[in-house]
Amino acid sequence: MKSNEQGFYLQMKPDGTINGTKDENSDYTLFNLIPVGLRVVAIQGVKAGLYAAMNGEGFLYSSDLFTVEAKFKESVFENYYVIYSSTLFRQHESGRAWYLGLNKDGVVMKGNRVKKTKPSSHFVPRPIEVCMYKEPSLHDIEEKGRSRKNSGTEAPTLLNGGEKVVGQNSTEQDGGS
């Protein structure tokens, strides 16, 4: 993700360091933006395998586990820039959100010091690869159960709270023996 006007790319190194770099070809600037809710994402460094998270003091850190501190609200604005704010922490008195941001030297800023109107919080994600996954359905589970039955394995299809589901064809097969 590139900081819109600062010229830095957000990077996460394998040791967990999060900062900005001018090297647009660095492998550490690649992130998975994982949807975890409506307009909420987890930011995971591809090479590091760690999640970006913000603590209660506004400091950005990396975590090997996905926690509530690793959830960021993603807001897209005109010119396609994106800002990320903590879903957990805000200013106590004003209620203003805490944002992810890089200063003019590429150093990560405290979330409570970043304003959404300033270029330090504006990022432009570069899509490298979009992964689409088919949502599983009960129909798929039933089809797999039928193919197991035809292959000779006796593993029952479990649905309805663990009760064995009997297909229409199984009673005909059982009655004919």
UniProtKB/TrEMBL annotation:
This is Fibroblast growth factor. Belongs to the heparin-binding growth factors family. Transmembrane segments: none annotated. Residues 167-177 have a biased composition (Polar residues). Pfam families: FGF. One of its GO terms (molecular function) is growth factor activity. Residues 140-177 are annotated as: Disordered. InterPro entries: Fibroblast_GF_fam, IL1/FGF. It comes from Oncorhynchus mykiss.
